[in-house]
Amino acid sequence: QVQLVESGGGLVQAGGSLRLSCAASGRTFSSYGMDWFRQAPGKEREFVARINWSGGITYYADSVKGRFTISRDNAKNTLYLQMNSLKPEDTAVYYCHAWGSDYWGQGTQVTVSS
User: Fold this and answer.
1) Which site from 29, 39, 41, 74 is most exposed, i.e. has the minimal number of CB atoms within 10 Å?
2) Cα angle value 65/69/75 (rounded, 5°)
3) pLDDT digits (tens, 9 = 90+) for 22-43
4) How far is CA 14 from CA 17, 85, 88, in A?
5) pLDDT at residue 81, rounded to an integer
6) To 5 degrees, how large is the angle CA 22–CA 102–CA 63?
7) What distance lies between CA 61 and its chain's CA centroid?
8) DSSP per residue over 44-91, as a string?
């Protein structure tokens, strides 16, 4: 069992930066690959980024490549998403997810003003 709690969302101007965190409970965090997803109002939830269990392999959606960085600290049971050069179209609720499981966090709101 893994419980996930996101934090770090907020309101930022276009071009700004935010760092999201996802704190995981349970001793099995390091055995999971982890994802970030996001969902904008009226839209489907979409994939943002993925990282493997060790942090050595990462994948990004084309829309965020070069601007967002996913990372993890297994000693702290924490997943991160560094978001730079934010755009209004990045506005969404951001969720962390344990790859291949039904474990999702509750989400954190990111709002980017133009």
Assistant:
1) 41
2) 155
3) 999 977 888 999 999 999 999 9
4) 9, 7, 6
5) 98
6) 60
7) 12
8) --EEEEEE-TTSS-EEE-TTTTTTEEEEEEGGGTEEEEEE-S--GGG-
